[in-house]
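Support case: adenosine-5'-diphosphate complex. Customer-provided input:
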Amino acid sequence: MPFFERILGIGKTKLDFKLLLDAIRDPFFICDLEETIIQTSPQLEEVFGFAQPILGQKVWKVFSGTDVPDAVRQVGSDAHKLDFGGERYFSLRVSRLRDPDDETRVLAVIVIFHDISDLKRADRVRIDFVANVSHELRTPLTSIKGYADTIAADLAAGQPVDAAFVGAIQRNADRLMDLVHDLLDLSALESHEALALEIVSTREITDRVVTGLRKNIEEKRQTLVVDLEVDSVRADPKRLEQVLVNLLDNACKYTPPERELRIVWEMGAGGGSSVLKVIDQGPGIPAEHHARLFERFYRVDRARSRELGGTGLGLAIVKHIVGRHGGSVWVESSVGQGSTFACRFPG
Ligand code: ADP
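Agent response - structure generated as follows:
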């Protein structure tokens, strides 16, 4: 391999070219000035899984329909993004390989692929999130503005203010406050605010949450059953309370009057963990929604959630909190059979 021996000076440095290739984790290839591929890294084949050997092939042929041929021609330019079909994105680094004995002489071009698919995905999540938040904020704001304008017009015309409009403004302002509160909470959880872990009594935490929501449960004449098979759990009490509030509030909200709600604390399968279950006799949730229920702003029935004052963030917060404790969340539900929301806490 005289080309590489000259470039790397193997004779002098005893560099093992094969080992060097293996050590570079990003896939790459080298082509000559006629754009024929003269070297590939082992990772290149692995990542792209070409149907035929690409050594000796032209770059434009192997990578047709992608940004690679253009990138090779614009040697020295910065990173290029490459949509290589599916959900894979790479940035490309293209550099000239020069003759060590004559720096003005370019011998070949090296193209290195750096996988940026994760970055791209994170970017998309962020963009979707901003769009969702804007939408969620705009709806109550539009109502507030509409009612405020109507009140102003009534006042200008010397007419009395309609109390219903003021009530609507208050309701929408409350919704905005709930939303901002939940958003700030999620962002605190994501910024890895430290948890204050301690041994929490399941009875105390359950009593506290039930007391807070008793009025809602009584208004719907629902029955609440509490089953404590586990005495304590290692958790951040404030965060744990929030988990239970969100789950019990949902159970109460989405379940029709006079049905039963159940809170169960039980040992996880195989011991070593505690499982909190909130079980209701509500409408149940079709299986196709289960995987996405814990995503921010995901709702089965958007109109119903709004009508009940939901922010669409409750379950996302639950998932984050339980995740921060090293646990997991899941739902068991089918239409007409009620729902069980479960959280496993380790230790
Ligand atoms: P929301 O503020 O809309 O209640 P959540 O994140 O708490 O937001 O819940 C997301 C969605 O999951 C809800 O909009 C609702 O469609 C569904 N959901 C949550 N809990 C229940 C439940 N106990 N029964 C039926 N549907 C539920």
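The mean pLDDT is 89.

Case will auto-close in a few days if no follow-up is received.
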